[in-house]
Write a structure and sequence with these properties.
Number of helices: 27
Structural class: alpha+beta
Shape: globular
Number of strands: 16
Strand order of the largest sheet: 1-2-3-4-5
Helix content: 40-55%
Largest sheet: 5 strands, antiparallel
Radius of gyration: 30 Å
CATH class of the largest domain: Alpha Beta
Strand content: 5-15%
CATH superfamily of the largest domain: DNA primase, catalytic core, N-terminal domain
CATH architecture of the largest domain: Alpha-Beta Complex
Number of domains: 5
């Protein structure tokens, strides 16, 4: 982050209102000195997401998401810090310093080249869309009509057609001033036998648009028997098929759906959306990647895997479950289509109502469903194999209540006694089960946190409500709290500090430290709270020192003991004075 001057960041912060930016995504209601709304980062019905107007940072009391306006834009738009700065700078009619662009990019890719590639892509998208309505695009247009789309659908998704000719797009882009080298870098052209040809020929084109509305690449379906059937833009300075999702530009506006529907293909996405399914996205010609799973987690708290109902789709769904289970805080379900059908086939035959009636299995349920595949459950051997496969699956279920529910079902299905199945699973120790059953809040308390007195002082300090010199950084016991105190005592805003903390857990702790609630309204009452908190903290430190002295006395020699007793006496006097 050091490549962007602090002065520019501070100026941008001064011109940006966090509550106005947040309100573009989340309905907010003002209560006192804060705005409140339902958190966009986790699914909730009661508003626990707060925007601190005075200090210009947000904090969720539910999931502990926190940060400044930069962090908020990063999470909502799925961009890195430099891009968040640019988006906010454009909003504030400011220009990001030139040096920022130069240092952000790798030596081989300038910001100017990225912009030119994006310009070439949008020019190509408009060209492909225009071809669709000509004789050269008739085959592609008939294909789309045959898949149930109308002209409105085609325009909504910007679909297009690449002609059969070898270099029609290249000639157009050359006329508009784009160099051949840039067209190769953009993945719009490919060299064959010393000649530059269009990357896409005789294909239906699906433009891939990022959440900011920029065309970053294309997916093309062949209109003949050529291989591959689907061809995607190769990795370019603006496109990486492992890190993006098709139709994410639509999904970012549908956060209220509370979940994403993940499909395998472009046509599945278009068809489901045409019939009213919201939040549908697709991978970009690859199996699900870790990067895409993290992108989904940032977009929604829940994902429905909606892959084809054939054997290949079922195997892909199982692989996707493995990836999603590594992402904390993401609920995953699998839609099970009738054998052989894909989402496009099903929705065209059954409509939105049929889609909503489809069973949605959680991870363990779906794995247990697939455990039946290739087994004859009418035989004892088949039933035994099924029970053993399911026990392997249930080993991965950490929640003891859910595991108990599955055990009961498995016992009924197989006829095996619950205790037999439990031994096959290898149950965790009772203490571990009791720990898993404890409320999350209780487990968080065990892990430690700032005492309320420290949080009260830091919150008052952040609001400028304490006289100079009343507190010092050494008044705080925890490293995170001392770091926050030092920053605030230097007169710098809390929001700027939160932006500089990269570790999510530490940033959440720091945000919690300056979010003590409720604070008294009056100045005298606040000063009284501060004094009471300081006294409590200093007494706690004195008692802790007293305990250390008592421990040391047990092994000290006579000379050292005399000194330690004198220290104890002084501490006792100070405790009585306070």
């Amino acid at each position: 982050m050091a490549w962007i001057p602090d002065a520019f960041i501070d100026e941008l912060l001064s011109r940006t209102s966090l509550e106005e930016v947040v309100a573009e995504y989340v309905p907010l209601q003002r209560k006192g000195k804060r705005y409140w709304g339902c958190c966009p980062f986790h699914n909730e019905k009661t508003a626990s997401f707060s925007v601190n107007v005075e200090e210009q940072f947000y904090y969720c009391f539910g999931c502990h998401a926190s940060g400044s306006v930069f962090r908020f834009v990063q999470e909502m738009e799925h961009v890195e810090f430099p891009e968040a700065v640019r988006l906010l700078a454009e909003r504030a009619h400011m220009s990001v310093p030139e040096s920022a662009d130069r240092q952000e990019e790798a030596p081989s890719t300038s910001a100017q080249e990225r912009e030119r590639i994006l310009e070439a892509n949008v020019t190509a998208a408009r060209y492909y869309h225009s071809v669709l309505w000509t004789g050269e695009g008739a085959e592609a247009l008939n294909y789309l009509y045959g898949r149930g789309l109308n002209d409105s659908d085609i325009r909504r998704f910007g679909l297009g057609a690449a002609p059969r000719g070898g270099d029609a797009l290249i000639r157009l882009l050359r006329e508009k001033g784009f160099e051949d080298a840039l067209l190769r870098r953009a993945g719009l052209a490919v060299e064959r036998d010393g000649k530059l040809l269009d990357m896409f020929r005789n294909r239906v084109l699906f433009p891939i648009i990022n959440p900011q509305g920029k065309v970053i690449g294309f997916g093309g379906r062949a209109m003949s028997d050529v291989k591959p059937k689907y061809l995607n833009t190769p990795d370019t300075p603006v496109f990486n098929k492992r890190k993006g999702l098709y139709a994410l530009n639509f999904a970012r506006k549908e956060r209220d759906a509370g979940r994403l529907v993940l499909v395998e293909g472009y046509m599945d996405t278009v068809s489901l959306r045409k019939h009213g399914v919201r939040g549908v996205v697709a991978t970009l010609g690859t199996a699900l990647t870790q990067e895409q799973a993290m992108l989904i987690k940032r977009q929604a708290p829940e994902v429905w895997i909606s892959y084809d109902g054939d054997a290949a789709g079922q195997k892909a769904a199982l692989r996707a479950l493995d990836i999603f289970e590594e992402i904390d805080g993401l609920t995953t379900r699998v839609i099970d289509y009738p054998a052989g059908q894909d989402p496009d086939d099903f929705i065209r035959a059954n409509g939105l109502e049929g889609f909503e009636r489809l069973p949605r299995y959680d991870a363990a349920e779906y794995r247990m469903l697939r455990a039946r595949d290739d087994l004859d459950l009418n035989t004892q051997d088949g039933m035994t194999q099924y029970a053993m496969r399911c026990c392997e699956i249930l080993r991965r279920v950490k929640n003891p209540i859910l595991r108990e529910n599955y055990l009961r079902t498995l016992s009924q299905q197989t006829g095996y006694d619950r205790e037999i199945l439990l031994r096959q699973i290898g149950a965790p120790a009772p203490e571990r089960e009791r720990r898993e059953l404890r409320p999350r809040a209780a487990r968080r308390e065990e892990a430690g946190g700032a005492p309320p007195e420290e949080r009260a002082l830091l919150t008052l300090l952040a609001q400028g409500a304490l006289p100079e010199g009343m507190v010092v950084a050494e008044d705080f016991s925890r490293e995170v709290s001392r770091r926050v105190a030092k920053w605030l005592l230097e007169g710098r805003p809390a929001a700027a500090l939160l932006e500089r903390i990269e570790d999510d857990a530490e940033r959440a702790e720091a945000a919690q430290d300056v979010n003590y609630s409720p604070l008294p309204e009056g100045r005298e009452e606040r000063l009284m709270l501060a004094q009471t908190s300081l006294t409590a903290l200093r007494k706690a430190r004195l008692r802790a020192r007293m305990k250390e002295i008592e421990d040391e006395i047990r092994t000290a020699d006579s000379v050292r003991k005399a000194e330690l007793y004198r220290q104890m006496e002084l501490i006792e006097q100070r405790l009585e004075e306070d």
